[in-house]
Design goal:
By secondary structure, the chain is mainly alpha-helical. It contains nine helices and two strands, in the order αααααβααβαα. The protein is globular and about 50 Å long.
Length: about 280
């Protein structure tokens, strides 16, 4: 009789141990980032492309916080990592492709949806490769353009054109609408294909935010915020264009110097990246 009771008690403990919850704080940021991507798609469907682009950029900010919050609060989990990747696919894969297609690419017929699909597919491939290469890639660099930066190139161009007063189908801008459509096509393909290259893009993960910094650093940060606020569409788009080209510059510089160009890790003293899926 005691053996039966002991067995039941043991099985009850096992059952209770198997019930695992999820950490609410980091996943709130992930869900908020997911909502940013969803909001962007809805706004594009309603013709509010400026708000659609802002939704993508808000998702970028929130996505950059979830992994850091998880590490700071020691709430990393496999569930959170998978949720983060799925959120990224929506916000930085499907959403930018659909926004670009709704804004301009649908005027190119088959070429338009091919470009949008290539971008979307490359985002999925880039995220899948990131997940399986986490332990072998040099944490100081991304292998290919990170998906948030690729989304910023696509959405940022639309935001910039909208702020400059460019209307869909209008030729009142210094570029005709047909030319703008092909520029959108080029940005979409460039962003998509660059995500799946082996070109190294600096990840900024070796920056230690917990360490003390000189006073001048805080002043510099304040100046950067002020510059961004002068005209966010122009400044942010310019920043991401420079970043989107920086990987090729690093690759060319390393190649010219005869240095190792691959981002496959050759160092053992790099910062931990657990919980970061970008």
């Amino acid at each position: 009789m005691h053996e039966v009771d002991d067995a039941d008690h043991a099985s009850g403990l096992v059952g209770r141990k198997r019930r695992k919850g999820i950490y609410i704080l980091p996943n709130l940021f992930t869900l908020a980032a997911l909502f940013g991507g969803f909001y962007a798609v809805v706004m594009a469907m309603n013709g509010r492309f400026d708000l659609a682009a802002m939704g993508v950029f808000c998702a970028m900010v929130l996505d950059s916080l979830d992994g850091r919050v998880a590490r700071m609060t020691n709430t990393q989990s496999a569930f959170g990592e998978q949720m983060d990747s799925l959120s990224d696919m929506v916000s930085f894969g499907a959403a930018p492709a659909l926004i670009a297609y709704e804004w301009a690419l649908n005027g190119l017929g088959r070429w338009g949806w091919v470009a949008a699909f290539v971008y979307c597919a490359c985002a999925a491939l880039r995220l899948a490769r990131f997940n399986v290469n986490t332990t072998v890639v040099d944490k100081r660099y991304f292998q290919g353009l990170p998906s948030p930066a690729a989304a910023a190139l696509v959405a940022g161009f639309i935001w910039l054109m909208t702020e400059l007063g460019v209307q869909r189908g209008s030729d009142e801008f210094w570029l005709s609408w047909r030319q703008i459509t092909w520029v959108m096509f080029a940005f979409t393909l460039y962003a998509g294909l660059t995500m799946v290259t082996n070109v190294p893009f600096y990840s900024f993960k070796d920056l230690q935010v917990k360490k003390s910094v000189p006073f001048a650093t805080i002043v510099l940060i304040a100046l950067v915020i002020a510059v961004v606020n002068l005209h966010p569409p122009v400044v942010l788009f310019g920043v991401f264009v420079v970043y989107g080209l920086s990987g090729y510059a690093v690759y060319a510089w390393r190649k010219a110097k005869g240095q190792h160009t691959s981002v496959i890790s050759i160092s053992t003293d790099e910062p931990d990246e657990r919980g970061l899926h970008k």
